């Protein structure tokens, strides 16, 4: 239960830093420290226990991504490139579209049962981690390793590996990120299309003598 509270606290801090992204770094650091302390207070005073009571437990993946977002907002280092983030969000959304309907009974095969120690499922995750490492997506590889080690040590209340890897709120975030990324790309193309005719009209016309 303590790890669940810490994961939730990281997510709350990441959200607060996103909302205060236009503030100076020192003020953002103060906001992050304040939210972290308030979130880690014991029930009924802490924010994290209340959030968990209404939304349920978050996955280790959500906590790790929130931690990377916190470091990015405070230190300015991008641990996941835009391409890696886009690919991870696409994988999460497609995985959710396959995983949740089948787990809810749309098929005789129940992928949620694989999370109770299925060897093939563990080998598939190991292979995915190796591919991420060879592709130099080190952050994604570390997230997979941390999630599986946390499952081995039963750091979350669940005894299913899926609950360490994915949660509905993570899928909602990935879907929102992809929508925002699409809108920003469209806006950038529109600005480029507007600026190109203006640049062409402003260019001096050279005449041959």
TrEMBL record:
This is Uncharacterized protein. It comes from the Bacteria. It comes from Alloalcanivorax balearicus MACL04. The chain crosses the membrane at residues 51-71, 83-100, 112-130. Keywords: Membrane, Transmembrane, Transmembrane helix.
């Amino acid at each position: 239960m303590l790890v669940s509270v810490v994961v939730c606290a990281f997510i709350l801090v990441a959200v607060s830093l996103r909302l205060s992204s236009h503030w100076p770094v020192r003020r953002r650091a103060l906001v992050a420290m304040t939210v972290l302390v308030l979130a880690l207070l014991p029930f009924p005073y802490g924010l994290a226990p209340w959030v968990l009571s209404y939304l349920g437990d978050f996955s280790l993946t959500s906590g790790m991504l929130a931690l990377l977002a916190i470091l990015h907002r405070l230190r300015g280092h991008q641990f996941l490139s835009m391409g890696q983030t886009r690919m991870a969000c696409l994988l999460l959304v497609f995985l959710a579209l396959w995983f949740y309907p089948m787990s809810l009974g749309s098929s005789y095969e129940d992928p949620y049962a694989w999370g109770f120690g299925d060897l093939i499922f563990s080998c598939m995750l190991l292979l995915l981690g190796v591919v991420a490492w060879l592709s130099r997506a080190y952050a994604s590889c570390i997230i997979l390793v941390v999630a599986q080690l946390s499952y081995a040590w039963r750091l979350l209340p669940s005894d299913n590996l899926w609950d360490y890897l994915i949660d509905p709120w993570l899928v909602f975030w990935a879907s929102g990120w992809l929508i925002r990324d699409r809108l920003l790309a469209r806006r950038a193309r529109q600005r480029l299309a507007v600026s190109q005719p203006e640049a062409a009209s402003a260019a001096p016309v050279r005449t041959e003598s």
